[in-house]
Queue: 3 jobs
Job 1
Amino acid sequence: MFAAEPPVVPRDALPAGEMDPELAYRIVRDELMLDGNARLNLATFVTTWMEPQADRLMADCFDKNMIDKDEYPRTAALEERCVRMLAELWHAPEPGDAPGCSTTGSSEACMLAGLALKRRWQQARRAAGLPADRPNLVMGSNVQVCWEKFAAYWDVEARLVPMEGDVYHLTPDRAVERCDENTIGVVAVLGSTYDGSYEPVADICTALDALRDRDGLDIPVHVDGASGAMIAPFCDPDLRWDFRLPRVASVNTSGHKYGLVYPGVGWVVWRDRDGLPEDLVFRVNYLGGDMPTFALNFSRPGAQVAAQYYTFLRLGFDGYRRVQGYCREVARGLADRIAALGPFELITHGDQLPVFACTLRPEATGYSVFDVAAHLRERGWLVPAYTFPENREDIQALRFVVRNGMTHDLADLLAGDLDRSLHELRRQATPLRGADSASFDHGARRPHRR
């Protein structure tokens, strides 16, 4: 088989002729062997392991188009069940009536939630005879880049609240300071990608309640729970962040992060039907039947939705609590091990998301976090090194994401490799790599100006 491979394989142009399928498979597979090991990737929040039964189920559904609900009614039914399960998990007042849908990920889910906020604000302004041409959205500078994309794509001013001192996410007082009559909503992040911390959603809602009572501004909150919305219900059941807070209008999550499904699925759910303006729902009949759709994408794979339903069915509440609790336990243990090595100072401890960040102490002058990340990469570990956004760009950090599949034993191996890397790095007189060498970027930019 290997001897049958042609001397030159076209990489950037369509080959002139056909190729044996097994040979084509091997050529592609050989190149993919040069990728990193997904299980050792502590940069990504995305699920890198599922059970063999889920693999088989997804293979059974690869040919199903999620949008074609008339042709694949049972796949459509699984999507609806998942929405109801999430609405109940997040304490919607009427889970069976809460609108929502699957998406290709949290980025699309955030776009939909943002569009709903903008349209509701526009409708209210026009009904009151007021201008509706300068919407803004308030959020911390630690938001995922999809929110800046939303602002750019749909002409909304992104009022990014910069980090300040040792506060690395949005706070109630600083959120309210930036709200006015043109604010379509406030985004609260349940699990920052920078350090894994929760933003104080309940306190933000309380501050906005006071703003309404004082100035008459009734501003809704969207919770970006890309990661935390599938952690908090199981590990922090008493934490009030979801639809138990009347000001929370919508919630999104990534099924492919701590929802424990392979990449390609997110979810957005609204508190009730008032949260999703009817004119954002489109109806098509050219696939057979009358089908409402309000996702940005049209054709989408059904396999990830089937896998999400399988995982909900397979684990149930107790199973998710066990898996997520174990991840947090591993994260906290690994954080303690890394802190004990000496040169690292923890920013977070893995006790909210099973994610923590650390920086180097001032006395570690001979190497940078970027040097540490490069040494770990040589041993197969992918640990991101990056700088924080505007106002705290002086912070250079490493972040460790613990997902299902990261065991105590693997964490011990990582800590051991990190210790060995430090022995080598201490021989350096000065850092060899700076922020310009980082391969990881949160996408944070300066706030948009108008």
Job 2
Amino acid sequence: MTDERHPQAPQDAGAPAEIRDIHEVPAVEVITTTAVHLMTAAAVKVGLADSPDARELIDLDEARKLITALAGLVVSAAPEIGSQHAGPLRDGLRSLQLAFREASPFPDAPGKGPGEKLTGPVN
């Protein structure tokens, strides 16, 4: 049985509204929103938080994981979401990779930083 408003969506009265409505969200929006969440978390972990205690929040191990995950998402999704969406995500990723290098007391060799295996060396 289908929902009359959305003939392709299965009707399930027991499903939460979030699940019934998620089919209305375009994939590009889900992808970019996820990327923004990863960027925000990584920015905090590399010390770019807009707060007086930003330096205390630095956690480069966590930042490395977030930036690498972001790189994987951006690189793999770029062909699907188009350059108008992928371009700003790539710019944000590059900025985070550079911020990570600057925050690190022992910077990684070029090509060895977070996500650089996927994006190539960032200078």
Job 3
Amino acid sequence: MHSVSYTDGHTPKFCIFCLLIFLFVTGLNLLNSLCLFLPLGGQDCILEPLCFPEQLSDSVSLASSDDCCLVSCVFCSHLAPLSDKDQLLKHLVLDHKLVIADIKLIADFPKYMLYWKKRFTEQPITDFCSVIKTNSEGPAELQENYFLLCDVLPEDRILREQLQQKRLEEVLEQQQKERNDTSFQRTCMFCNEDFTGNRSVLLNHMAREHSFSIGLPDNIVYCTEFLDALERKLDNMQCFYCEKIFRDKTTLKDHMRKKQHRRINANNHDYDRFYVINYLELGKTWEEVLSEDDRELLKDDDDDWSDWQAHPVCAVCLFCEQQEENMEKICTHMQEAHKFDLHKLKTELNLKFYQQVKLVNYIRRELHQCRCYGCQKKLETKEEVVQHMMEAGHVMQIPEISHWDQPQYYFPTYENDALLTALSDSESESEGADHSSDVPVFPEDISNLKAIKQNSVLNKLLKDRGSSS
């Protein structure tokens, strides 16, 4: 934990501490739609968000009506369509070393980019962005400066709030028009009954008669577009929930009835733009809105958790597609099937929690790029790499700590890697046996112990108690 430095005036001893805090605040997802990893040589990088296959989902942010508009780079004339925002983000990282945090929380991305394009022509980027230097203690030719633009900067936070406020005003105005509209006319997609008047009549009918609820009418905006999108799915013989396609409508309806799939898919974020809550509280999903709007739920003041059941999150093996529900099982599998003993490595190398995180992310990345971490031999497929490592005995041949104990490996290689959440501190740490590590500790100001003792709240309470007795 020594190869990163900040060059924007911050005190060096706070660098790692600030980095850790920032990682947790952003949920280890600092780069949002980009997962960026920088190797020592600067040759390999992962620019796409990686997910394990069983949890892939379409990650679509709040869409506007003109997704086809072009967005300009803040530094050059490069243009990219708003619907392909990742293309522009990759360009910013590769060509200009700029990372924009929390992209999904920017209400109007084109206007946000235009604002900063103007500001960067007026002042240098270092006046606004934190500068992170990779491999700070290595050779100068291997060092790179990356710029982070986020709402920690007051000007950026104000801009985001203003854009959000303007978008909210537009959405609320549209919603009010729909709520007051009495000229609504539409046919139910399930029974072909015609409805006229207010949109709530149709929405309540579908919820009551067909057990298909998309939430309270007052929480919906762009209702006509929403219903059009749902009808297109039915016309394409596609189930709302599992989104499988069937050969005819009769089979589809039987499937939705038997499987209780008369609800929309929680992983399809195309629906986000139709719920007002997504403009009020960015990051809150429409599925949470549906649960809040469920009028059948009764308030329970007893807080009875006896029937609560946790949904196990499956951890994926480092070397194959095997999944297990807990750390013990996945470690046993890796040891028996691949001769990889994570517990042994943790003990022998005295790995702290964050070092385990970085080691797992390092191994994930090397295997994703079809490279043996033991000898750096590159092959065609991941399966060939694993076979090579088994035959050559490289599975437990971890390289020097300087290769993988790098800041870039704080970021997960796979953004849904449940194995990271199952890691734990070593036994010596949990028992408090080894606290003499080089991890910096920032105590409170205890320069005047006498004053603290005299002003102690506990001391005052004891005096009051003594006087009262």
